[in-house]
What does this fold into?
Amino acid sequence: MVAVVLAAHLLAAELPLVADHLVTGPKSHVTLTNRADQAVTAWALAVTTHPASGGTHREVEMVDGYLSTVTHGIAGAAPRLERLMPGESREIELDPLPEGATVEVAAVILDDGTALGDESIVAPMFARRSKERDALGAVAQTFADVLASEHGAQALDTLRARLDALPNRAEVPCRAAIDAVDTYKQRVADRTPEQIDESLRTYAAFVTREWELAKKAAARR
It folds into this structure.
């Protein structure tokens, strides 16, 4: 048992992402510093508290920012989902924590697909990336197929039907694409077919860039 505990501490010490300068209370936050020679694209923080009723409570918060390469600067993009570049430090807001709480980095995924830390956390993160990759691919292919032969309002109608029929339509990329098409449909009376096509091509290109990133991010080294 002593050997297992020691090994766990050594593993934590070797993680290239460091959490320190923890501040508890109503505005709890912690500083993360990337000491790796490449970007950290995802991480998990283990937050441990000791309730007054006794015992220990541990929660894990996972953040995956591999898509920030293309979402950076877009309105609505969450800064906390930005990947951490080599040498970068960032203050991360947390839910209010009581005095005596601790925050540790439990897992890290680097830009090249290297994963370090708790395997029970890392495996689900890659599983989620794989699902996101497949959903992005389905959306990108749907747009490519429709835009190859249809235009304007007709393309919008076909896209809406094709997206709604996707097996993974419940995944975030599919829902986002459906919302985008619905928004374009609401404005169809004020736009020419050429303007509609331009908007759809722009959206398709954006999703394709995300898909390319997702294919890389889902491949674990």
